[in-house]
């Protein structure tokens, strides 16, 4: 059962990345891995359920990549910013762009309801809690600040991915994200 699930997610990931959700053939992807549509329906309910599983996998990998990008930062603040910037930069990855940023919201709805996005939000909340406790960030509601920072990174990535010139949009998005985030810092006189 788990082996079939892994096979179907892998095949769907390739199909969704290459053809998009609408263009991906369930018959083709199940045939590719030697399974039937029944296995797909049994494991995921329908094509939308399969997309949700693929989005969760790709989104989790994005979170790992962002955390890796921030792992070399000298401070917790720099780590938070590096993770946000890395997330935005992933909009240039064709697979991320197609699956998570274009088809995900169009088919699955509001990313704030995705379990994988909420896992990212929890990590951001932990960082914001530490930064407030350490006097780096202003004392602000942790949930509100975390949602704004996470949402800004996600929406910046959406903008970059939808841009006609994503490589031109990327530095603009990162500069604006950084400036917005810096508004949370404690002002030193």
Automatic annotation (TrEMBL):
Residues 2-62 form the HTH tetR-type domain. Gene3D superfamilies: Tetracycline Repressor, domain 2 (1.10.357.10). Pfam families: TetR_C_41 (PF21351), TetR_N (PF00440). It comes from the Bacteria. Keywords: DNA-binding, Transcription, Transcription regulation. Residues 25-44 bind DNA. GO terms for molecular function: DNA binding. The keyword Glycoprotein does not apply. PROSITE patterns: HTH_TETR_2 (PS50977). PANTHER family: HTH-TYPE TRANSCRIPTIONAL REGULATOR YJDC, TRANSCRIPTIONAL REGULATORY PROTEIN. This is TetR/AcrR family transcriptional regulator.
């Amino acid at each position: 059962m788990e082996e079939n699930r892994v096979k179907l997610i892998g095949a769907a990931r390739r199909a969704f990345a290459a053809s998009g959700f609408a263009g991906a053939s369930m018959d083709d992807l199940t045939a590719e891995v030697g399974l039937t549509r029944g296995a797909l329906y049994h494991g995921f309910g329908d094509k939308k359920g399969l997309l949700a599983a693929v989005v969760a996998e790709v989104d989790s990998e994005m979170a790992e990549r962002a955390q890796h990008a921030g792992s070399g930062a000298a401070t917790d603040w720099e780590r938070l910013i590096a993770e946000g910037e890395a997330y935005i930069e992933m909009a240039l990855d064709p697979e991320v762009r197609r699956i998570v940023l274009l088809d995900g919201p169009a088919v699955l709805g509001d990313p704030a309801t995705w379990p994988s996005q909420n896992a990212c939000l929890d990590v951001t909340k932990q960082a914001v809690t530490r930064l407030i406790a350490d006097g780096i960030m202003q004392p602000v509601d942790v949930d509100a600040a975390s949602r704004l920072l996470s949402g800004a990174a996600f929406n910046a990535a959406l903008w970059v991915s939808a841009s006609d010139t994503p490589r031109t949009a990327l530095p603009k998005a990162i500069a604006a994200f950084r400036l917005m985030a810096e508004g949370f810092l404690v002002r030193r006189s």
